[in-house]
Specification:
Low-confidence stretches: 1-11, 136-142, 216-220, 344-349
Structural class: mainly beta
Distance between the termini: 55 Å
Order of helices and strands: EHHEEEEEEHHEEEEEEEEEEEEEEEEH
Strand content: 35-45%
Number of helices: 5
Length: 349
């Protein structure tokens, strides 16, 4: 069973730093081995002679990864039948609050109540050996060279740097970087494959000492929980804080801009290309902003369906057609959104 935590309408984190279950608690993947096999076939056989892996093999390999359980583990279930394939805590001490899966499907990062993040391989024995030089300490789950072949999940690195429970993650495979936020308003940047700490960013110091927020209230030395993070492949990320503010940075800690979201956001995603930010929350509206200045460019009203709970976009690498946006709302429905073709025709005329 998943930990219920507090009602998402009030707070996603309880007094102990434990997250309630939400879209940050789940992820779908085919696993690293299948993805790597697809890539090798494309390179070896060329696009014209390339033969896709049979659909039944892909369906059998698809896994649902989830966290937030009473036993503080990550669990991998098969998509077909939701049969439990394996579970493990990877050395986390306490609840695992959130997870993020890379685009290649074989690497995952988790964040826990113990103020650490952990790097995992998912059904990718060769990568587990490469990341750990053939050996993983017992605290991380045993010797990779002897037993990782038998395990679907292998924990390879511990990412240090936080002093408070982790609340959110965003992982970019292209940058080999992960940004993680915590309840004390700190964002840390790490490399994933090497597991190295890069830098720490204090979101409470966005404005200079003695400065003020756009609302005119002094914002210095006020620690605000980081609710959500979104990182694009250009090295820019946006943090959504407990006070509803959006702050944009580069992973080099350069401050770019800020804006007031005006609501508690439950979902935040970067569009392909990394130029647009899509958000949704308690106001029942999907808001599209440009990442560079956080100015609102488009608003989609879904008031008839209730608050926005999750937003996902089809990967541009997998879908040559224009992206679709899938929006999960409080009434249990999923709304699929495409670009406005009529608007495009009018522009062309």
């Amino acid at each position: 069973f998943l930990l219920g935590g507090n009602d998402l309408r009030d707070s996603c984190v309880d007094a102990n730093g434990v997250l309630a279950a939400g879209s940050w608690s789940f992820g779908l993947t085919l696993g690293g081995s299948i993805k790597y096999m697809q890539q090798k076939r494309r390179v070896a056989m060329g696009k014209r002679r390339y033969k896709e892996i049979p659909q039944n093999a892909l369906d059998a390999s698809a896994m649902l990864l989830s966290c937030g359980y009473w036993d503080n583990t990550i669990k991998a279930h098969s998509v077909e039948g939701l049969k439990l394939k394996c579970s493990g805590h990877g050395g986390h001490r306490g609840a695992i609050n959130c997870l993020s899966i890379g685009d290649e499907g074989g690497l995952m990062v988790t964040g826990g109540q113990d103020a650490t993040c952990r790097v995992w391989t998912v059904d990718w024995h060769d990568m587990a050996i490469a990341l750990t030089d053939g050996y993983v300490q017992t605290a991380l789950g045993g010797n990779a060279s002897s037993s990782s072949k038998e395990r679907t999940l292998n924990c390879c690195h511990i990412l240090w740097g936080h002093d408070a429970p982790i609340t959110c993650l965003s992982f970019s495979s292209d940058l080999d970087a992960v940004v993680s936020g915590s309840v004390d308003g700190i964002v840390c940047v790490h490399t994933v494959r090497r597991g190295k700490f890069v830098r720490k960013i204090d979101t409470s110091k966005f404005f200079p000492d003695g400065g003020s927020s756009p609302e005119g209230t002094n914002s210095s030395n006020q620690k605000k929980l980081v609710r959500t993070l979104a990182l694009n492949d250009h090295g820019t990320f946006v943090a959504h804080l407990e006070n509803d503010m959006l702050q944009s940075y580069t992973i080099n800690a350069v401050k770019l801009c800020c804006a007031d979201a005006g609501e508690k956001l439950n979902a935040m995603e970067m569009c392909s290309g990394g130029e647009m930010l899509v958000t949704g929350g308690e106001s029942c509206h999907v808001v599209i902003r440009t990442v560079g200045d956080l100015i609102v460019r488009c608003v989609l009203d879904l008031s008839s369906h209730g608050p926005i709970r999750c937003i996902k976009l089809t990967p541009d690498k997998l879908n040559p057609a224009p992206q679709f946006m899938y929006i999960g709302t409080d009434d249990g429905r999923v709304t699929i959104v495409d670009r406005d073709l009529k608007r495009n025709r009018k522009k062309s005329l």
